[in-house]
Write a structure and sequence with these properties.
Blueprint (H helix, E strand, L loop, with lengths): L5 E5 L6 E5 L9 E2 L5 E2 L1 E5 L13 H7 L2
The structure holds zinc ion (ZN).
Length: 67
């Protein structure tokens, strides 16, 4: 896996960004992040400003997405 294979999900309660597999990003909400968290919003790519470039990317998703 690489960061470009993921979409950026957002946990609306915490504001934390999580990585969602791009191939599941077209499914209805909520989405399961690769760390197991449930996210209510998917917005853009994980390797963009809403994901890895955001203020609070999930450390588990960062580690898992960079495998
Ligand atoms: Zn996560």
């Amino acid at each position: 896996m690489s960061p470009s294979d993921h979409a950026a999900g957002r946990d609306q309660e915490t504001g934390r960004a999580h990585a969602v597999l791009a191939e599941t990003a077209d499914l209805p909400a909520p989405w399961a992040a690769i760390c197991g968290a449930s996210v209510g919003v998917v917005q853009g790519r994980w390797n963009g400003p809403r994901g890895l470039g955001s203020a609070d990317p999930c450390p588990d998703c960062v580690r898992l997405s960079q495998g």
